[in-house]
Amino acid sequence: MGKHQPKLPDLTAVVVGDNFEGRFSPFLQKSDWSLKKIGALTTLESCLMWISRTCVTNVILVVSAENTEVLDQLRYILNSYKGYFTSLLVSGKNVMSVGDAIREVEQRRLITGDFVLVHNVATLCSSKLQEEIENFRERRRKDKNNCLTLLYAETNHDLNPVIAVAKNTKKLMLYFKKERSLELDLDKEFYMQEAQIRRDLRDTGIALCAINVAAHFTDNFDFQERDDVIREILVNEELLCQNIHVEVISNKCGAATVQFGVTTNPKPRAETTSHIWTSKPSCFNAGSTRSCPKPSPLWT
User: Which InterPro entries match (predicted)?
Assistant: First the structure.
């Protein structure tokens, strides 16, 4: 008999269902960001569709909405995917940022292990993320201080924020949020290390996190965005002894996060949508025994 394969731990996805950009607020006065349409589907449906193809077993959707009708619609969509994962809707009127969303979940002690952070529900991905999740878990097995992995996709767009990644280990060494940066302030020591400066990578909006990433938000109430944690870990690397790594999704797949109604470059969204619809979940394939999501009344 072959060796029994140990059961992999459950993996939770924490999805932030709101858009907190102030300039976008007029667009959201009459409807919730999770219920906005990307093509024929709502942003939530589009997000859950690709999550259902991964090894995620639990999904937590965090929103600030208190309207009963909106919450009922969100629950209906979540329940449509109960054949793929368990789901929970968390609503908090004080959720005004990604940091607030994580703190709301942490306060309820809902995060008990590694999790996938999707800090914008309007995120599309055609990859099952099997290799990326396996690499993250392997790094965690070797060193528990490897607490965060950021997922990127290659792009021809040359105005992406600059990052630097160690050649052999994929460790993130530099992180510049600002686009169109023409000057980089680098220490001499940086050039002594083997690193790749990349500007051809686009943030997918997906991050693989250890539980102590959530602790950064609960310990620092001024942390509002995921970038606050990234900078905290990089700046205080010697003190915190924590590491961030980068995984680049295969160029055979697509991934993009949508802001302000469109991506900063609309081409990635079109490519990603095409990948998703040509790589549909198995429930759409003939002969599949998996349960399918119920058609949403919001599709029509």
Answer: eIF2B_epsilon
Taken as a whole, the chain contains a residue count of 300
Amino acid 238 reads: E
Round to the nearest angstrom and report the end-to-end CA distance of the chain.
52
Among left, alpha and beta (phi > 0; psi -120 to 50; other), residue 266 is alpha
- The answer to whether residue 1 sits within a structural domain is no
Q: Would 295 be classed as within a structural domain?
A: no
Radius of gyration for the alpha carbons in the chain, expressed in angstroms and rounded: 19
161: in domain: yes
Predicted TM-score of the model (pTM): 0.84
Identify the domain containing residue 247 by its residue range. Answer: 12-260
Contact predicate 273/140, CB 8 Å: no
Give 138-141 contacts, CB < 8 A, sequence gap 24+.
Answer: 139/245, 140/114, 140/210
Q: Which residues contact 236 (CB under 8 A, 6 or more apart)?
A: none
User: Whose structure tokens read 């906005």?
Assistant: 36
What's the domain count of the chain? 1
Q: What tens digit of pLDDT does each residue of 141-190 get?
A: 999 999 999 999 998 876 788 899 998 899 999 898 655 455 555 554 55
